[in-house]
Amino acid sequence: MSPSRSTTKDTEEIISIVKAMAPVYGGINLEDISAPRCFEIEARLREELDIPVFHDDQHGTAIVVLAALINALKVTGKSMEDVRIVVSGVAAGSAIIKLLKAQGARYILASDGAERSTGRPPTATSTVGGSPRTRTRRASRAR
């Protein structure tokens, strides 16, 4: 079956359209839906449908990052459990972080870079041994 496209940006309308089409598909691949709408749409569809829902921009990227990291670890002789990983862009990086944690990563520092786009201080989330800690840091500015 060929891909179906919609030009709407309305969250409820997207969910309604996908739910109506779902019975004839074995899985749903969401493509090019911007954050933060993509998170709500994916979560709601996963709850309400009985078929897999995949958001290519998040999960496809996470798979590629994991493959690259596994390869780099083999080359350097290091293990996932011992390396420190930095993820810049927590919104898009959330799927990456979840996948890395599932693969045994214990030391992850994530920054959302919010100060550039929103003017608010950036938030850093670190995961050590599986327990996330979030803190907000004021960035120093050169004057």
Structure summarized in a few sentences:
This protein has 143 residues and is of the alpha/beta class. 43% of the residues lie in helices and 20% in strands. The strands form two sheets. Strands 3-4-5-6 form a four-stranded mixed beta sheet, with helices on one face.
Can you walk me through this structure?
This protein has 143 residues and is of the alpha/beta class. 43% of the residues lie in helices and 20% in strands. The chain is built from five helices and six strands. It has helices spanning 11-21, 37-48, 56-76, 90-102, 114-118; strands spanning 28-30, 53-55, 84-88, 107-111, 123-128, 131-136. The strands form two sheets. A four-stranded mixed sheet has the order 3-4-5-6, covered by helices on one side. A two-stranded parallel sheet has the order 1-2. Helix 1 (11-21) packs parallel to helix 2. The longest helix has 21 residues, at 56-76. The chain is elongated and about 50 Å long. The model is unreliable at 134-143 (pLDDT under 50).
Widest beta sheet: strand line-up: 3-4-5-6
Q: Give the helix level as a range of percent.
A: 40-55%
What structural class do the secondary elements suggest? alpha/beta
Major pleated sheet: 4 strands, mixed
DSSP E strands, number: 6
Q: Report the end-to-end length measured between terminal Cα atoms.
A: 58 Å
As a whole number of angstroms, the C-alpha radius of gyration is: 18 Å
Name the overall outline.
elongated
Order of helices and strands: HEHEHEHEHEE
Residue stretches low in confidence (pLDDT < 50, at least 5 long) are 134-143
Strand fraction: 15-25%
**Residue-averaged pLDDT:** 81
Helix count equals 5
